[in-house]
Amino acid sequence: MEDPFRTIEWKGDHIRLLDQTLLPSREEYIAIRTVDEMCDAIYRLAVRGAPAIGVAACMGVALGMLTAPEDNREEFDTRFKAICAQISATRPTAVNLFWAVERMEKLFQAASGMAPAQIKELLVAEAIAAEREDRTICENIGLMGRDLIDDGDTILTHCNAGGLATAGYGTALGVIRAAFEQGKKIKVFSDETRPLNQGSRITCWELQKLAIPVTLITDSTAGSLMQRGLIQKVIVGADRIAFNGDAANKIGTYSVAVLAHYHKIPFYVAAPLSTIDKKIDSGTQIRIEERDPCEVTHIGGICVAPSDVRALNYAFDVTPHELIAGIITECGVARDPFVKDFESFFSR
User: Fold this and answer.
1) Residue 3 resides in a domain
2) Are 207 and 223 found together in one domain?
3) Binding residues
4) What is the domain count for the chain?
5) Contact yes or no for 239/94 (Cβ under 8 A)
6) Model confidence over 203-215: pLDDT tens digits?
7) Among 106, 165, 254, 340, which has the highest number of CB atoms less than 10 A from its own CB?
8) Is 292 annotated in the active site?
């Protein structure tokens, strides 16, 4: 099945990406021509989802260097460092952002003896390669996880971890899609995912594009459906995974995991190895992004709360590894104790 949309792609002198803030009412692609525009797109969630942010970061670095002066090496190097720092400052939780910047930094350092024009070509090639690799990785995640889904299952997902959160195919939705493409008769419940409604606006839109049966529910409905035996599996994505398996994902994921554990429903996380942060031992070390309170007090620009009320807007929470039945990666499904499987995957 071909993708009905492209999340992000390199177009020579600019980057074309689907503006996810406008979905589902408008399917509009925007042209990113500067680093400032890419940073703005990442921050305001025009492009979102850890893998997609990683690809966007790679492309942003390459794009920014296209106009770097080639006749002054010191200025050329300074420009590169500034671009990397600017992109790194956009969002703190998704590790793929920093993984991508480090990937471009390693390439830049390895090519230090080359002419600036050659380095620019290498950076562009690396950014394009990152986009293609992400698509392949997501397809492999789908293959690794599809047998966890049985024919007739109804799966709950939270937020969006589909093709729109990646360069294509998706992680959590990639597993669901792979099972659907096997011919399994499955259904999906999609949490709305307040406050920005990525589940209602984006996941439902994407699943409808793929002809996968989906029903939208409020976040507070999930427990009732589990209690009635209407959900057999939960599959979500992740923005950063500690080396012990603690997983940060969109706010509300932890609540879903607790509910699933109580009702003895397998709770799975699907993510590429690049989302696993080998530098941190547990989820307590994951920095949680706090966003504008207006995202909580307003919906579609309309105030739905008293004008002077205080609002707290954590963008993510951390699900402890004990609540996770398995973490689905492109190398296989890791089980608790996750460290052992992660070490095996990274050594391949």
Assistant:
1) no
2) yes
3) 48-50, 91, 198, 249-250
4) 2
5) yes
6) 999 999 999 999 9
7) 165
8) no
